[in-house]
Amino acid sequence: MEHTRCVLRTIILIVIYVSAVHGSSRRHHRRLLLDARDATTLVSDPSLSFENVRIRNAYIALQAWKEVIVSDPHGVTTNWVGSDVCNYTGVFCWESIDNPKERTVAGIDLNHQHLAGHLPDHLGLLYDLGLFHINSNRFCGKLPKSFLNFKILTELDLSNNRFVENFPQFVLELPNLKYLDIRFNEFEGKLPEELFSKNLDAILVNNNRFSSNIPENIGSSPASVIVLANNKFTGCVPSSVMNMSKTLNELVLRDNGLDACIPETIGKLKNLTVLDLSDNRIKGELPVSIEEMRTLDMNITSL
């Protein structure tokens, strides 16, 4: 019931916001730009002064977020008051990359706070973010497309929440992203092939509802850790995994619907320390090459 109320609240707020900015000719601009009413409301105190425009934008973004947080059991946002956003709990500032004389919000870390609500479009104003960590909360709904603004983001951790939709496409447009963790949500559909062409070091998408085959180009990924467990993947373990012999340390595919071959070439993954294919429907004998991998922590059942 709580989840349903949260989703409905998110839908209502999105409808109101889109209606307020219907004059824009491009949909993604409507979601990225603040209308004058919102800006006036969020910066209504004439006594507030900001050290630079970046901090002012951060204030607008964080106040908009605070307004749509419906449960804050630990009082995390109680000190989200005033113009000094760098002293807000969970907010971290640093020198901006393009102007070291200006401070900016470089990180958000609200892990394990049990916050409930959704993520407003205004968060796209935090365009200097290097990391965004909100794991183990109760945020719900869809992710805002304004996250496309996070061009220098390196770490994105949305795990252990209640986000829904297909794989968030904006992730594919973040040029500096290295760490992706969207575990334990309600994402569904296919994983895009482009995910494995990105320069990611960790891809953690387990415990969602992703389905279909694992993309054939998984071997194009430079990641050291790939965890796709507890989804609905079917078919083969792609033979292209052999291409990750220099980088891959952990490959966890357990608890899916994989029902076909383990590639013979999997033994070429000399740096692999963890291989978990358990709780699938894989048949047949283990490739001989696996038995030669002495340092491997292996868990394979249904053979």
From TrEMBL:
Ranges of residues in domain Leucine-rich repeat-containing N-terminal plant-type: 61-94
InterPro entries on file: Leu-rich_rpt, LRR_dom_sf, LRR_extensin-like_regulator, LRR_N_plant-typ
Keywords per UniProt: Cell wall, Cell wall biogenesis/degradation, Glycoprotein, Hydroxylation, Leucine-rich repeat, Repeat, Secreted, Signal
Record-level GO BP terms: cell wall organization
Primary localization class, coarse: secreted
Pfam families, A to Z: LRR_1, LRR_8, LRRNT_2
Cell compartment(s), UniProt: Secreted, Cell wall
Stated name of the protein: Cell wall hydroxyproline-rich glycoprotein
Organism in which the protein naturally occurs: Cynara cardunculus var. scolymus
